[in-house]
Amino acid sequence: MSRAELDRLLESKRANALLAWIFVAFVAIVAVVSLVRGRLLWAIFAATVVVLSVLPAIALRSALVMVPWEVLALAALPTLARAFSPPVGGIATYLAVAALALIVAVELHLFTAVEMSYRFAVGFVVIATLAAAGGWAVIRWVADLYLGTGFLGSEDALMWEFVASTVAGVGAGLFFEGYVRRRLPPERLPEVAR
For this UniProt entry, which segments traverse the membrane (predicted)? Predict the structure, then answer.
């Protein structure tokens, strides 16, 4: 198969939907595996990715209505890395959170009347990622305070987590602008998103 044939195949709505559903299935498996392994928080997070990913298909009653598979790949890869390789967990967590914010931004842009400017889209993803990182820090602080867990190492480590989440958010925001808004061919989009 030539490169041009492969590009045409990946630009069809059916191929996009198939690839998107495959990534959703992988993340659903991660949710189940995480639940079985006792990683409740990560299981809930992976389940949230699944729910947000299938929301357009459910709302518009068509299995072909999915966000671009590349966006779901961005959400699935750090989720898989976090679930199966804990040493890269911290980095993968913030990439996954940024990807979750990216899914929300893409769904708002493609499936609603909302049109995001470049600055707003990038800012939305960055702020959503930072808000999630801040919320997670507060949860860990409360657990440390009342349960004596020791989740928070030091203030220095916490600040580096915020830096990592900012970088992940900016990267996801730039991906949104660079790929989804500028390079996504209209024939890949569902009729409702055109």
Answer: 18-36, 42-60, 91-111, 118-139, 159-180
Specify burial of residue 180 (Cβ count, 10 A radius: 0-12, 13-18, 19+).
Answer: buried
Average pLDDT, the chain: 78
| pLDDT digit string, tens, across residues 112-129 | 888 777 778 788 888 888
Over pLDDT 70: what percentage of the chain?
A: 80
**One-letter identity of residue 64:** L
Only one residue has tokens 């389940």, namely 47
User: How do the domains of the chain map onto residue ranges?
Assistant: 1-66, 68-186
Residue 158 neighbours by CB under 8 Å, 6+ apart: 137, 152
- pLDDT at residue number 185: 53
DSSP 39-90: -HHHHHHHHHHHHHHHHHHHHTT-TT----HHHHHHHHHHHHHHHH-GGGHH
85 Cβ contact partners less than 8 Å away, ≥ 6 residues apart: 92
Residue 187 pLDDT > 60, yes or no?
Answer: no
Q: Which residue's structure tokens are 């966000």?
A: 67
Question: The tokens of 12 are what?
Answer: 């069809």
CB 95 within 8 A of CB 78: yes
